Amino acid sequence: MTGAYLAAELVSLACIVAVDARFRLFFWADARRATVVLVSGIVLFLVWDVVAIAAGFYGRGESDAMLGIEVAPHLPVEELVFVTFLSYVTMVVLALVRRALLAREAR
């Protein structure tokens, strides 16, 4: 099923956005700072990917679930969504853990 992987990534990303919005953890806490942090994470992971691809460590895999669109050689569009999701979910989880620890200390 072409596009299933991208669809799953987008649904997962939407769920994290909903959690963030509901609890005001990352973007809803400070949009400017969140933008800088998220873009920094995305750039870091994309540079990492490009270096790994150039060094021959990995290339684009074949799957019927992927669209087959590459933004660069061996870099599928799904990878852009994945690194965005990875960076975003990391920061939401970090904010959630911080909040839980602060609540624990307050008791």
Distance between the termini: 50 Å
Beta fraction of the residues? under 5%
Shape call: elongated
Poorly predicted runs of 5 or more residues: none
The overall pLDDT, averaged over residues, is 94
Q: Overview of this structure, please?
A:
With about 110 residues, the protein is mostly helical. The protein has one domain. Helix content is about 70%, strand content about 5%. It has helices at about 5-25, 30-55, 75-105; strands spanning about 70, 75. Strands 1-2 form a two-stranded antiparallel ribbon. A hairpin with a 2-residue loop joins strand 1 and strand 2. The longest helix is centred in the last third of the chain and has 30 residues, at about 75-105. The radius of gyration is 16 Å and the shape is elongated. It starts with a helix and ends with a helix.
List the helices and strands and how they pair.
Layout: H1 4-23, H2 31-54, E1 70-72, E2 75-76, H3 77-106
Antiparallel strand pairs: 1-2
Helix pairs in contact: 1-3, 2-3
Question: What attributes does this structure have?
Answer:
107 residues, mainly alpha
Quick summary:
The protein has 107 residues and is mainly alpha-helical. 69% of the residues lie in helices and 5% in strands.
